[in-house]
Design goal:
six-stranded mixed β-sheet; Rossmann fold; 14 helices; binds guanosine-5'-triphosphate
């Protein structure tokens, strides 16, 4: 296909504004897939995506479209995720595109992620085609949405704005025509040395690493000798082809094309998204700058429920598929060898956990998530120096600490006027400090400073429920600021259980510790003897309960037993207690979930 007849584009939008539905419609109109295949949303094929109804991984599909001018065009569409935790996937999709459709839901108007994704597309230098979706809905506010789009940037003030219903298909043919006439064709030279960008990769146990790539210059054929420019690894092409959206082998790929490549490389670590692929014989001079994988912000321990080796392999493959997820080995006294996982947010952690189960059949035990703290020690030679702690067990004893700082975010919440009071009440409950408030018609924009550690499951669900699902949230790292935090240790049977250590804000300590021990009483598996559970902060036991024994307590006064039987029972139970001091206690996932659910 000539370059002038190719279009590489992404669809960007706020979560749930209809990207996947539009992607499916485009594939249906161009007959890339049959109507039957479309019964399920095709591009969302990870099980987690179907369960949550959101796109997690960006997906690519090639469509052949006969335009009104009589020519056939190759439209390579890249579906992108909309959730704030997956910005990194969006950036990758944009780097491989020349244009982007900015989709806005007419019932909600411009939202936080609409703007965030638009800014990413502007940075990538893409031409933007704005499209208003869901015009079939009775709640659609088309004129207001158009006005909001026009205000986003000077180009959009002039751009044609299409109105569609991705659900019914109304207006979708016009979108295809606009893609052909409004979005640019790729530039590049087939004769130049090969220069291709890896924008996605997956691991296949039989075929090794499979990459999705965009060719900017040159061409590719079966058996070509290639090199990954960052890792310097050389390999030859096992198979190449296009994504329709299934992998379909072809004989060549040329400048401007988007496709896949089976590398045969068995070590996932050697292939990095953002790396440049070139030819060994005619290498390109300059690789792409590459993406900067974002730094993880939330950390948790990942421990095997069954087998360490299977967990390790599955985790390594997932880190390849999702470079924003990072792992390093760690060992816990209570749980044995495992990993510390770094994530972009709580939702990201949840998705990784589910993908481990769905795609690899591996169950994983996750400890309480935490953020990275900067701990300034009392006896530090240089007052500017600090200890970076992302594992609570490494949090120093309080006697050694001068002060601690924690990551603070700027959170932008956009919510309907009638829910604003409740949203503000809850955000402040989660230690949000209001910085600004702006009126945007029927929507109110609230800007808060909020500790990252407060943005957990509870905060998200509270925000959604108090705003009846309408509030949108976007966050940006602001700075590290001093925080009054303390380490909370849990002792079971008088010995500390390292996997249950976590960091909390000091003012929450009295209430939290009380709730914690009460929950643990019912989740820690019982033994034959009573087990005291203590929550300890700065050397003081703030709360205590006893996990009741599995059977009756021989020492209980109201039991009608002979004295000698009681004494015999007591002797046995004492023996058990002593043994217990050396026994590991069992920690099922419910114990950690009980901590996650805690609210002040
Ligand atoms: N009424 C109406 N509903 C629509 C339209 N387009 C999409 N929807 C519905 O909106 C919801 C979200 O659509 P998706 O296509 O999954 O949204 P998305 O933007 O891909 O969402 P993420 O992948 O989670 O970012 C679904 O329930 C769709 O059925 C439309 O044109 N009209």
């Amino acid at each position: 296909m000539e370059l002038t007849h190719i279009r590489n584009f992404s669809i960007i939008a706020h979560i749930d504004h209809g990207k996947s539905t539009l992607a499916d419609q485009i594939m249906a109109v161009t007959q890339t897939v049959s109507a039957r295949q479309l019964s399920d949303q095709l591009l969302d094929d990870l099980t987690v995506e179907k369960n949550h109804g959101v796109t997690v991984k960006a997906r690519t599909a090639r469509n052949l479209y006969q335009a009104d001018d009589g020519h056939v065009y190759e439209l390579n569409l890249i579906d992108t995720p909309g959730h704030v935790d997956f910005n990194y996937e969006v950036e990758k999709s944009l780097a491989a595109s020349d244009g982007a459709i900015l989709l806005v839901d007419a019932t909600q108007g411009v939202q936080a992620q609409t703007v965030a994704n638009l800014r990413l597309a502007e940075q990538a230098g893409l031409v933007i085609l704005p499209v208003i979706n869901k015009i079939d809905s009775v709640n659609a506010q088309i004129a207001a949405t158009e006005k909001q789009i026009r205000q986003l940037n000077p180009e959009l003030a002039q751009a044609p704005i299409l109105q569609i219903s991705a659900k019914t298909g109304q207006g979708v043919p016009e979108v295809l025509e606009a893609i052909v006439h409004y979005l640019p064709a790729p530039q590049g030279q087939v004769q130049a040395p090969l220069k291709a960008l890896i924008f996605d990769s997956v691991y296949d146990p039989f075929k090794g690493v499979i990459v999705n790539l965009r060719l900017f210059d040159g061409q590719l054929q079966q058996n070509d000798q290639l090199q990954l420019m960052a890792s310097q690894k050389t390999f030859h092409v096992h198979e190449l082809g296009i994504l329709t959206p299934d992998r379909t082998p072809t004989t060549t790929l040329k400048a401007g094309d988007v496709g896949y490549l089976i590398t045969g490389i068995k070590d996932p670590q050697q292939v990095r998204v953002g790396d440049t692929i070139t030819s060994v014989n005619h290498p390109t001079a300059q690789p792409f700058p590459g993406y900067q994988p974002p730094k993880p912000t939330v950390f948790t321990g990942l421990y095997p429920v069954k087998d360490y080796k299977t967990l390790k392999e599955a985790l390594q493959k997932l880190t390849l598929n999702d470079p924003s997820f990072q792992i390093s080995p760690e060992t816990s006294d209570a749980l044995g060898p495992g990993f510390r996982g770094g994530f972009l947010g709580i939702f990201h952690l949840q998705i990784i956990k589910e993908r481990l189960l769905n795609e690899f059949g591996v169950e994983v035990l996750t400890t309480v998530p935490n953020v990275t703290y900067h701990v300034h020690l009392a006896e530090a030679a240089d007052p500017k120096q600090f200890l970076t702690v992302n594992n609570p067990v490494r949090f120093p004893d309080f006697s050694q600490i001068n002060y601690v700082t924690e990551p603070i975010l700027r959170a932008t919440i956009v919510t309907p006027e009638n829910t604003v009071n409740n949203v503000m009440k809850w955000t402040e409950h989660y230690k949000g400090v209001l910085m600004d408030i702006q009126n945007q018609g029927q929507l109110i924009k609230l800007i808060y400073k909020i500790p990252l550690s407060e943005l957990d499951y509870n905060f998200f669900s509270r925000l959604k429920s108090t705003s009846h699902g309408y509030a949108s949230l976007s966050t940006k790292f602001l700075d590290y600021e001093p925080a009054d935090v303390v380490r909370l240790d849990v002792r079971v049977n008088y010995s500390r259980v390292d996997a249950l250590t976590f960091i909390i804000h000091r003012p929450d300590a009295p209430q939290l510790t009380q709730k914690l021990v009460t929950k643990l009483k019912y989740t820690i598996p019982r033994r034959l003897y009573p087990m005291p559970v203590q929550a300890v902060v700065e050397g003081k036991v703030l709360a205590r309960v006893d996990v009741p024994p599995l059977r009756k307590n021989a020492a209980a006064n109201n039991e009608k037993r002979s004295i000698s039987k009681k004494q015999a029972l007591l002797r046995r139970q004492n023996l058990n207690k002593r043994q217990a001091a050396h026994n590991d206690i069992e920690l099922p996932q419910e114990v950690f979930n009980a901590i996650l659910d805690l609210e002040v």
